[in-house]
Please model this.
Amino acid sequence: MNLPISYQQLMDQGAEMHSNGQIDLALLAFEQALALDPTDPNSASACATLLSELGRPNAAYLVLQGACAKLMTYPDGAANLAIAAENSGAVDDAIACYRAALHLDPNHVRSLNNMAIIDASQGRWSFSIEKLQRCIELLPNEIWLHINMIDTLVGARLFDRALQQVGCAITHCGPVSAFTVRRAVVLALNGTLLAASRAFEEFGVEDVQTYRAWLLASSRGVGTMVRPPSASHALPDARTLFLQQVFSAMQVCDWSMQALATQVIAEMIVEMEQTGVELDLREAQFYALLLPTTEAQQTSLRLATGRVIQHLEDLVKLPAPKLTVSADARIHVGISCESLADVRYAAALRNQIRLHDAGRFRFTVYSPTLQPRLVEHDLFAKLGATVVEIAHMTDMEAALRIRLDRLDIWMDTAFYTPWCRPELPALRVAPIQIRQQTWQRICPPFPCEYAIGDHFTHPSGTTGLSSQFGAIVRFAQTCWLSTDPPVEDPKLVTREEVGLAPEAFVMYCGSHALMVDPHSFEVWMVILKAEQRAVLWFPGYSAAARQNLRREAATAGVDTDRIIFCDRVSRDEHLSRIALADLFVDTLRFSANQGLVDALQVGLPAITCAGANMASRLGGSILTAAGLSDCVVNMTSEYVETALMLANSPEKLRALRAKLKGAVKPIPLFDSSARLREWEYAWTRMVEQGRKNLPPVSFDVPDMGTRYPDVF
Model:
């Protein structure tokens, strides 16, 4: 006769099976025990633990919810429920449970620590640090608590305090590898480069492994300041790590270490020239455009990085693909794009393909979307275009996959975005490779045959550079391609609704926070001091960027109330709001590009100051194509004078608005059909040149539209 198995027997069986690695059988035993009392916290916790190990966090949370009433009566139970909620993505539920645990026991270390991590992930650094400090006071010898505190201080960019915390951790716990590595890292991030380099040189085998693990974890964190390690690339040294930190800080308008970063970049360039050992400085070649570096330095960075990527050991040399004539005689264009998860970008790309001549061109889009939606693929398929997802592929796999499509032209539109993969052009995915959007004026002849510019970004006299550098294709109007669909039925809003004074002179900067450099900000502060009615309006930047910009304004002697930020709203609503401004003020080192185009689309006049390279001249290209060439100046003094003149000339502003909104014919900037005909001309000429086995040459694209007269 078989007697029924008791609750305790089932729990003991489950524990034994779990210790033997029989997870499925252990889960079955625990589930049978739970069935005897679905509200029992012990069997529910056992089931939840195994479900989590099996990668089923939602099921684990559901099981614990059945025992919620009893779990919430003691701190460990409430914390377990919170952890399950957090793992399943229910962060608000997790916070409520942690708070309940802390109500029962204010010194419950696990809840304090986990709440601190949530605070850090949401940028609430002071709250996170306060909770972790309490944890360390309670358990001063716990290594993991010190690690969490150091990493949180690093995330908050409190590097001096982080270094002090490392010393405290070593005092309490000894010089373990986790602290040795973090000391070297914090020294590097803080710009103490000589001491940091020495610390890196002293790494042992365990330290190198710890450093790699730290890099991987940090690259996944909120406000990440490092790139993930790669098996094929050297781990970043002290200088590289420092530069990555500075570049990350620039994204939230923290300019405190830019002077040192500029000096480090200059030293690295000299060192490469003296030793012949070139470095992969792919981030630096972009961010240097936002620093006071020279064009010669920017070119050195780009050439060195290009040669390093070209000769990476893991890039197997493939035979160069050749131009062929397809059965339907159409030119096959491949577009490596940004993530199609960006709805605005995806719509603009579809609109571009829709307007092209499908009888002469066909398109394949190579998408890096991490969680692609098939509905997006269907929308492109209706236009005759194919979407190939490559986010899950290695560089070699992606290159070989692209080669299978036998493209005539491959065009990189993801250049310098997080989705940029410079290894792809180095692997030669098509006979003709184009940089659709680049930011330097001078482009190397490899791995892309052509770079795109126009008569403003590359004025007369610069095309001769192609004998030493890559071929430049100059468009007659602008190299910026605007294919955003027009806004339908814009929502009417008032200044009062968005926090703007009716009588204020509102200067709007629609640049990404990264492009807001200290030089531009200094010039804007001069304008605000000279025009007391003026306010400076920014997009919905992060809390850190807002705090930093307000601090910079206060340092400049400007009331922080005159620095205003938009709320985060839908694109259509955002466009309706920025139309309330009086003047768009462009950034000086790196033009606003898409933000500037958005402003012009809603009739907002703008000013820009043309610099020496393409990044700082694109604003002038866009404004010229919008018919506002007199709003393009060449010196910061003219920029200030023009802004102040317009602040006191409402009739001039009205004339500029009328020109943008009242044109009988399409403004060249927004005449997408004409601009795309120009692209088709360029592609055709490139292919004809290639099929004749002739080398790439610079050429000008004829104007397919009509220029508009100036206002002033």
Q: What stands out?
A: Confidence is low (pLDDT under 50) at residues 707-712. The chain has four domains: 7-219, 251-310, 331-475, 496-670. The first strand starts at residue 331 and ends at 336. The chain is about 50% helix and 10% strand.
